[in-house]
User: Fold this.
Amino acid sequence: MADFLAEVEAFGPVGTVVANAGVSYGERPGGTMETAEETRRQIAANAIGVVNTIAPLIPGMRARRAGRIAIIASLAARIGLASAPGYAASKAAAERYGEALRARLAPEGVAVTVVSAGFFDSAMERRFRGAKPFRWSLERAADRIGRGIERGERSVAFPAPLVIGLAVLPLLPKGAADAIARGFRFTVEPP
Assistant:
């Protein structure tokens, strides 16, 4: 990836990069949990893939004192999803990486936007069976994400009711938080 991005930069500086990795597994219909290998795949794509996409471009952006980085995480990063622990962990890593980069790079003129979306219509989302509260259309989600990146917003998170609810979750006793996490139950059809 670093070699490919160096070739891209040879044509001209990259002004905006969107790291949008999306591999998902989870509990299958029938109750089988995701495997250790599936968890490793999610971490490799959703977390390490983000690093591999962004890290090679950071030196050039820092030197130019300009650039936009967007990391597509998920609201799943903010809750220990009982039905998809590997996905939640992988997106939490991506979210924390983005937050750290944002704090580090902002003084150097590089904007970092961390996108934490709930459910919206997509091929990946259609594999999830179960409740999808406050689900957005693909068009609405893409418009909100695009505007946020263009404006250099620090964070784009939606839908608001889930964002607010998940912000309160860590304040609850762990038993209550775990019960809520189990309430976000769904199964995931294999890719």
User: Anything to note?
Assistant: The longest helix spans residues 85-105. The longest strand covers residues 110-117. Strands lie at 16-19, 67-72, 110-117, 128-130, 155-158, 186-188.
